[in-house]
Write a structure and sequence with these properties.
This protein has 282 residues and is α/β, with parallel strands linked by helices. The chain has 10 helices and 8 strands. The structure holds zinc ion (2 copies). The site of one zinc ion (ZN) has 5 residues, from loops.
Length: 282
Amino acid sequence: MFVDSHCHLDRLDPSTHNGDLAATLEAARARGVKQFLAIGVTLDDVPGVAAIAREHADVVISAGVHPLHRVAEEPTLEAIKETADRYGAVAIGECGLDYHYLEKAPDQVPSREVQRERFRRQLIAASELELPVIIHTREARDETLALIREHTDPAVGGVLHCFTEDLEMAREAVRHGFYISLSGIVTFHSAKALREVARQVPLDRLLIETDSPYLAPVPHRGNPNEPAWVVEVAECIAAERGISVDEVAMQTTANFYRLFRAAAPEASEEMRGILQGAGLVK
Ligand SMILES: [Zn+2]
Ligand SMILES: [Zn+2]
Protein backbone atom coordinates (compact mmCIF):
# COMPACT_ATOMS: atom_id res chain seq x y z
CA MET A 1 0.00 0.00 0.00
CA PHE A 2 1.44 3.35 -1.05
CA VAL A 3 1.11 6.92 0.16
CA ASP A 4 1.56 9.93 -2.09
CA SER A 5 3.00 12.23 0.57
CA HIS A 6 2.96 15.35 -1.60
CA CYS A 7 0.57 16.16 -4.43
CA HIS A 8 -1.17 19.28 -5.67
CA LEU A 9 -4.66 17.89 -6.16
CA ASP A 10 -6.06 21.38 -6.77
CA ARG A 11 -3.67 21.91 -9.67
CA LEU A 12 -3.89 18.70 -11.67
CA ASP A 13 -3.64 19.06 -15.42
CA PRO A 14 -6.97 19.21 -17.30
CA SER A 15 -5.71 16.42 -19.57
CA THR A 16 -5.28 14.03 -16.62
CA HIS A 17 -8.30 11.69 -16.70
CA ASN A 18 -10.15 14.47 -18.56
CA GLY A 19 -9.75 16.75 -15.58
CA ASP A 20 -11.77 14.37 -13.38
CA LEU A 21 -10.17 14.36 -9.93
CA ALA A 22 -12.29 11.45 -8.66
CA ALA A 23 -11.14 9.33 -11.62
CA THR A 24 -7.54 10.41 -11.03
CA LEU A 25 -7.69 9.29 -7.40
CA GLU A 26 -9.46 6.08 -8.40
CA ALA A 27 -6.65 5.25 -10.86
CA ALA A 28 -4.15 5.72 -8.03
CA ARG A 29 -6.16 3.57 -5.61
CA ALA A 30 -6.32 0.84 -8.25
CA ARG A 31 -2.51 0.69 -8.08
CA GLY A 32 -2.55 0.56 -4.27
CA VAL A 33 -2.10 4.26 -3.48
CA LYS A 34 -4.42 4.61 -0.50
CA GLN A 35 -3.49 7.90 1.13
CA PHE A 36 -2.84 11.34 -0.34
CA LEU A 37 -1.43 14.48 1.26
CA ALA A 38 -2.68 17.47 -0.72
CA ILE A 39 -0.47 20.51 -0.33
CA GLY A 40 -1.51 24.10 0.21
CA VAL A 41 0.67 26.49 -1.80
CA THR A 42 -0.89 29.70 -0.45
CA LEU A 43 -3.27 30.27 2.43
CA ASP A 44 -5.91 31.34 -0.11
CA ASP A 45 -5.73 27.87 -1.71
CA VAL A 46 -6.35 26.01 1.54
CA PRO A 47 -10.18 26.16 1.52
CA GLY A 48 -10.20 24.59 -1.97
CA VAL A 49 -7.77 21.87 -0.97
CA ALA A 50 -9.79 21.24 2.21
CA ALA A 51 -12.94 20.84 0.10
CA ILE A 52 -11.19 18.02 -1.81
CA ALA A 53 -10.29 16.34 1.48
CA ARG A 54 -13.89 16.56 2.69
CA GLU A 55 -15.00 14.75 -0.43
CA HIS A 56 -12.35 12.02 -0.31
CA ALA A 57 -11.72 10.25 3.00
CA ASP A 58 -8.18 9.25 1.98
CA VAL A 59 -7.03 12.85 1.36
CA VAL A 60 -5.47 14.96 4.12
CA ILE A 61 -4.08 18.45 3.68
CA SER A 62 -1.34 20.86 4.66
CA ALA A 63 -1.48 24.65 4.94
CA GLY A 64 1.38 26.95 4.01
CA VAL A 65 2.90 29.44 1.62
CA HIS A 66 5.41 28.36 -1.01
CA PRO A 67 8.68 30.34 -1.05
CA LEU A 68 8.32 31.30 -4.72
CA HIS A 69 4.73 32.43 -4.54
CA ARG A 70 4.19 36.16 -4.84
CA VAL A 71 1.53 37.42 -2.46
CA ALA A 72 0.14 40.92 -2.08
CA GLU A 73 0.57 40.74 1.66
CA GLU A 74 2.76 38.41 3.68
CA PRO A 75 0.62 36.15 5.88
CA THR A 76 0.98 36.78 9.58
CA LEU A 77 1.86 34.12 12.12
CA GLU A 78 -1.72 34.28 13.39
CA ALA A 79 -3.18 33.83 9.88
CA ILE A 80 -1.02 30.76 9.25
CA LYS A 81 -1.99 29.17 12.55
CA GLU A 82 -5.64 30.05 12.20
CA THR A 83 -5.88 28.61 8.66
CA ALA A 84 -4.10 25.38 9.60
CA ASP A 85 -6.33 24.97 12.61
CA ARG A 86 -9.62 25.80 10.94
CA TYR A 87 -9.09 23.43 8.00
CA GLY A 88 -7.55 20.57 9.95
CA ALA A 89 -4.11 20.62 8.31
CA VAL A 90 -1.86 17.74 9.35
CA ALA A 91 1.26 19.79 8.55
CA ILE A 92 2.52 23.29 7.80
CA GLY A 93 3.83 23.79 4.28
CA GLU A 94 4.97 23.69 1.76
CA CYS A 95 7.34 26.35 2.95
CA GLY A 96 11.06 26.91 2.68
CA LEU A 97 13.73 28.62 0.62
CA ASP A 98 14.27 28.46 -3.13
CA TYR A 99 17.15 30.59 -4.42
CA HIS A 100 17.34 28.88 -7.80
CA TYR A 101 15.54 31.61 -9.74
CA LEU A 102 16.95 34.60 -7.87
CA GLU A 103 19.76 35.24 -10.31
CA LYS A 104 17.86 34.47 -13.49
CA ALA A 105 14.64 36.28 -12.67
CA PRO A 106 15.07 38.41 -9.56
CA ASP A 107 11.93 40.45 -10.33
CA GLN A 108 9.78 37.34 -10.65
CA VAL A 109 10.34 35.76 -7.25
CA PRO A 110 10.38 36.90 -3.62
CA SER A 111 13.76 38.12 -2.38
CA ARG A 112 15.93 36.16 0.03
CA GLU A 113 14.80 38.38 2.89
CA VAL A 114 11.12 37.88 2.11
CA GLN A 115 11.56 34.12 1.72
CA ARG A 116 13.52 33.86 4.93
CA GLU A 117 10.98 35.74 7.05
CA ARG A 118 8.06 33.89 5.48
CA PHE A 119 9.78 30.55 6.16
CA ARG A 120 10.63 31.56 9.72
CA ARG A 121 7.02 32.49 10.48
CA GLN A 122 5.83 29.12 9.21
CA LEU A 123 8.44 27.25 11.25
CA ILE A 124 7.26 29.14 14.33
CA ALA A 125 3.61 28.37 13.50
CA ALA A 126 4.45 24.68 13.12
CA SER A 127 6.33 24.68 16.37
CA GLU A 128 3.50 26.40 18.26
CA LEU A 129 0.90 24.03 16.79
CA GLU A 130 3.24 21.04 17.21
CA LEU A 131 2.73 20.12 13.57
CA PRO A 132 5.46 18.79 11.26
CA VAL A 133 6.74 21.04 8.45
CA ILE A 134 6.90 20.25 4.74
CA ILE A 135 9.99 21.97 3.41
CA HIS A 136 10.81 22.96 -0.14
CA THR A 137 14.53 23.77 -0.38
CA ARG A 138 16.64 24.49 -3.42
CA GLU A 139 20.11 26.03 -3.51
CA ALA A 140 19.66 27.28 0.04
CA ARG A 141 21.17 24.45 1.98
CA ASP A 142 22.95 26.16 4.88
CA GLU A 143 20.20 28.66 5.60
CA THR A 144 17.53 25.96 5.47
CA LEU A 145 19.42 23.79 7.92
CA ALA A 146 20.16 26.74 10.22
CA LEU A 147 16.50 27.76 10.39
CA ILE A 148 15.41 24.16 11.02
CA ARG A 149 17.90 23.85 13.85
CA GLU A 150 16.71 27.09 15.35
CA HIS A 151 12.95 26.45 15.21
CA THR A 152 12.06 22.79 14.78
CA ASP A 153 11.73 20.37 17.65
CA PRO A 154 13.27 17.10 16.39
CA ALA A 155 10.47 15.25 18.20
CA VAL A 156 7.95 16.86 15.81
CA GLY A 157 10.24 17.19 12.79
CA GLY A 158 9.23 17.45 9.19
CA VAL A 159 10.18 16.44 5.69
CA LEU A 160 12.47 17.82 3.00
CA HIS A 161 10.12 17.26 0.10
CA CYS A 162 11.11 16.51 -3.50
CA PHE A 163 14.65 16.18 -2.26
CA THR A 164 17.34 17.02 -4.82
CA GLU A 165 20.28 17.96 -2.60
CA ASP A 166 23.22 15.77 -1.63
CA LEU A 167 23.60 12.93 0.85
CA GLU A 168 25.36 15.14 3.36
CA MET A 169 22.38 17.48 3.59
CA ALA A 170 20.01 14.51 3.86
CA ARG A 171 22.04 13.11 6.74
CA GLU A 172 22.13 16.43 8.55
CA ALA A 173 18.34 16.79 8.22
CA VAL A 174 17.78 13.21 9.41
CA ARG A 175 19.93 13.95 12.45
CA HIS A 176 17.50 16.73 13.24
CA GLY A 177 14.40 14.54 13.13
CA PHE A 178 13.56 15.04 9.45
CA TYR A 179 12.44 12.68 6.75
CA ILE A 180 13.60 12.76 3.13
CA SER A 181 10.95 12.52 0.45
CA LEU A 182 11.87 11.36 -3.03
CA SER A 183 9.87 12.25 -6.12
CA GLY A 184 9.95 11.09 -9.74
CA ILE A 185 13.25 12.94 -10.17
CA VAL A 186 14.96 9.88 -8.65
CA THR A 187 14.03 7.94 -11.80
CA PHE A 188 15.57 10.49 -14.19
CA HIS A 189 18.59 9.23 -16.09
CA SER A 190 20.68 12.20 -14.92
CA ALA A 191 19.86 11.76 -11.22
CA LYS A 192 22.77 9.50 -10.24
CA ALA A 193 23.59 11.44 -7.07
CA LEU A 194 19.97 11.29 -5.95
CA ARG A 195 19.89 7.50 -6.41
CA GLU A 196 22.86 7.41 -4.05
CA VAL A 197 20.66 9.24 -1.54
CA ALA A 198 17.91 6.67 -2.22
CA ARG A 199 20.34 3.88 -1.33
CA GLN A 200 21.90 5.51 1.73
CA VAL A 201 19.16 7.30 3.67
CA PRO A 202 17.87 4.99 6.42
CA LEU A 203 14.72 3.25 5.19
CA ASP A 204 12.80 4.41 8.25
CA ARG A 205 13.42 8.02 7.18
CA LEU A 206 12.22 7.86 3.57
CA LEU A 207 8.95 9.09 2.11
CA ILE A 208 7.70 8.94 -1.46
CA GLU A 209 5.72 11.51 -3.41
CA THR A 210 4.73 12.58 -6.89
CA ASP A 211 4.55 16.39 -6.50
CA SER A 212 1.80 16.03 -9.14
CA PRO A 213 1.20 17.59 -11.59
CA TYR A 214 4.94 18.25 -11.84
CA LEU A 215 7.91 15.93 -12.37
CA ALA A 216 6.40 12.79 -13.86
CA PRO A 217 8.73 9.80 -13.37
CA VAL A 218 10.23 7.61 -16.08
CA PRO A 219 8.50 6.21 -18.20
CA HIS A 220 5.90 8.99 -18.07
CA ARG A 221 8.27 11.93 -18.48
CA GLY A 222 6.85 14.79 -20.48
CA ASN A 223 3.29 14.10 -19.30
CA PRO A 224 1.54 15.88 -16.46
CA ASN A 225 2.14 13.83 -13.34
CA GLU A 226 -0.54 12.09 -11.27
CA PRO A 227 -0.62 10.29 -7.90
CA ALA A 228 -0.81 6.80 -9.45
CA TRP A 229 2.79 7.20 -10.52
CA VAL A 230 4.17 7.29 -7.00
CA VAL A 231 4.49 3.54 -7.57
CA GLU A 232 7.30 4.17 -10.08
CA VAL A 233 9.16 6.13 -7.41
CA ALA A 234 8.83 3.22 -4.98
CA GLU A 235 9.96 0.77 -7.66
CA CYS A 236 13.07 2.81 -8.36
CA ILE A 237 14.00 2.98 -4.66
CA ALA A 238 13.39 -0.77 -4.28
CA ALA A 239 15.66 -1.53 -7.27
CA GLU A 240 18.40 0.75 -5.95
CA ARG A 241 18.30 -0.80 -2.48
CA GLY A 242 17.87 -4.36 -3.69
CA ILE A 243 14.69 -4.88 -1.66
CA SER A 244 11.09 -5.59 -2.63
CA VAL A 245 8.62 -2.89 -3.67
CA ASP A 246 6.38 -4.20 -0.88
CA GLU A 247 9.00 -3.41 1.69
CA VAL A 248 9.43 0.13 0.35
CA ALA A 249 5.64 0.56 0.33
CA MET A 250 5.21 -0.73 3.88
CA GLN A 251 8.10 1.24 5.33
CA THR A 252 7.32 4.56 3.62
CA THR A 253 3.66 4.20 4.62
CA ALA A 254 4.58 3.58 8.25
CA ASN A 255 7.00 6.54 8.09
CA PHE A 256 4.24 8.76 6.74
CA TYR A 257 1.93 8.12 9.67
CA ARG A 258 4.76 8.37 12.17
CA LEU A 259 5.59 11.86 10.88
CA PHE A 260 2.07 13.11 10.11
CA ARG A 261 0.52 11.84 13.31
CA ALA A 262 -2.72 13.74 12.77
CA ALA A 263 -3.35 11.71 9.59
CA ALA A 264 -3.37 8.35 11.38
CA PRO A 265 -6.86 8.58 12.93
CA GLU A 266 -8.18 9.43 9.46
CA ALA A 267 -6.66 6.37 7.84
CA SER A 268 -8.96 3.81 6.25
CA GLU A 269 -9.80 0.54 8.00
CA GLU A 270 -7.57 -1.29 5.54
CA MET A 271 -4.69 1.06 6.30
CA ARG A 272 -5.28 0.90 10.04
CA GLY A 273 -4.83 -2.85 9.92
CA ILE A 274 -1.36 -2.35 8.47
CA LEU A 275 -0.51 0.38 10.95
CA GLN A 276 -1.61 -1.76 13.85
CA GLY A 277 0.63 -4.50 12.53
CA ALA A 278 3.50 -2.03 12.54
CA GLY A 279 2.59 -0.92 16.08
CA LEU A 280 1.86 2.62 14.92
CA VAL A 281 -1.74 2.93 16.06
CA LYS A 282 -3.80 1.11 18.66
ZN1 LIG B 1 8.04 22.06 -3.62
ZN1 LIG C 1 4.85 20.83 -4.16
